[in-house]
Amino acid sequence: MNPMVEFCVSNLANGSQETYEILERDPNIDVLEYGCLSYCTKCSESFYAIVNGELVEADSPQELTKAIYQFIEENPLW
User: What percent of the chain is predicted at pLDDT more than 70?
Assistant: First the structure.
């Protein structure tokens, strides 16, 4: 079972698309895109994704990518 990373389409449009594209190429991560994840305040203030049900956020797409990989490493599914 791969880690699941979920993105809001509005946050993708705000800049997290770069992170989405990097993760989408990783065969060990499942990436999904939704119309809304109901984190509107976070969405307007930072870059974020939901990783295995937990909110992960950062100040830039590059930092978000690093934070997601770090979260996955520190919180294995098994």
Answer: 99
